[in-house]
Write a structure and sequence with these properties.
The chain has helices spanning 6-14, 27-36, 47-50, 62-75, 93-105, 121-129, 145-148, 158-174, 186-195, 216-219, 242-254, and strands at 19-23, 40-43, 80-84, 111-115, 134-139, 178-182, 200-203, 211-214. The protein has 266 residues and is an alpha/beta fold. Strand 1 (19-23), helix 2 and strand 2 (40-43) form a beta-alpha-beta unit. The longest helix is centred in the middle third of the chain and has 17 residues, at 158-174. The chain binds 3-methyl-2-oxobutanoic acid and sodium ion. Pathway: Cofactor biosynthesis; (R)-pantothenate biosynthesis; (R)-pantoate from 3-methyl-2-oxobutanoate: step 1/2.
Length: 266
């Protein structure tokens, strides 16, 4: 089958086919998840935590993402590669263009992901106008951890829910091709998903999104130094291989069996 493209993701949404995404940081795991048939692979700045053992994603650099992205790209033949823009690497449109150039040119990414709306809308607009596919990321944005004071569900109060609805429309309007919603109450995430034309990928955002993403280590039941969030499920339990765990996750997402009620927030 043809490699996954940006228009293909949009078509999947319009046809009601759920989109699958996994994070990945090296070529061998990339090969395994690509073979299992994942649609999109994210070189997340979560690598700061799961690969580098840091307490947050803030110390991750563009060089780090380029290094891991290039490795992952060599393992993929089918899935679309998304790479995270690190903290402050897209704070101005000029920096965003430089970062995207490196992630796509050296890293082999087909899409770049950045957190937030508001002041970031200009960066989204400038990238999109220059044909850089952008994935926005709203809800819990881990690069805001110092401001937020921790990792917790976002959009529970009515004012925050209203801001999220408006931000989601604004990133689409600015030209984003996809949106990740992290740790958002399931009803709100479903509502935002219905309100947008672009695909919405959830993590801790309920089953009502157009697709799902999980950090690879979490899916494999690996416990890190940090508390495992409730939206995580160990897909290695019940299978006997890593590729089997990837396949079980992909099938559960496509059939709407993951996330279940217990993985989401009210
Ligand atoms: O860095 C990451 O892994 C992410 C996903 C959790 C969406 O941004
Ligand atoms: Na990230």
């Amino acid at each position: 089958t043809a490699p996954v493209s940006v228009p293909r993701l949009r078509k999947m949404k319009s046809e009601g086919q759920r989109i699958t995404m996994l994070t990945c940081y090296d070529a061998t795991f990339a090969l395994a998840m690509d073979r299992a048939g994942v649609d999109t692979v994210l070189v997340g700045d979560s690598l700061g935590m799961v690969v580098q053992g840091r307490d947050s994603t803030l110390p991750v650099t563009v060089d780090h993402i380029v290094y891991h992205s290039a490795a992952v790209a060599r393992g993929l033949t089918h899935a679309l590669l998304v790479a995270d823009m690190p903290f402050l690497s897209y704070a101005t449109p000029e920096r965003a263009l430089d970062t995207a150039h490196r992630l796509m040119g050296e890293g082999g990414a087909a899409m770049v992901k950045l957190e937030g709306a508001g002041p970031m809308l200009e960066s989204i607009r400038v990238l999109a106008e220059r044909d850089v596919p952008v994935c926005a990321h709203l809800g819990l944005t881990p690069q805001s951890v110092m401001k937020l004071g921790g990792f917790r569900v976002q959009g529970r109060e009515e004012a925050a829910a209203g801001r999220l609805r408006a931000d989601a429309l604004a990133v689409q309007e600015a030209g984003a091709a996809m949106l990740v919603l992290e740790c958002v109450p399931r009803a709100l995430a479903a509502e935002v998903t219905r309100s947008l034309d672009i695909p919405v990928i959830g993590i801790g955002a309920g089953v009502g999104c157009d697709g799902q993403v999980l950090v690879m280590h979490d899916l494999l039941g690996l416990r890190g130094q940090h508390r495992t969030p409730r939206f995580v499920k160990d897909f290695l339990a019940g299978t006997d291989s890593i590729e089997g765990a990837f396949s079980a996750y992909l099938q559960a997402v496509r059939e709407g069996r993951f996330p279940a009620e217990e993985h989401g927030f009210d």
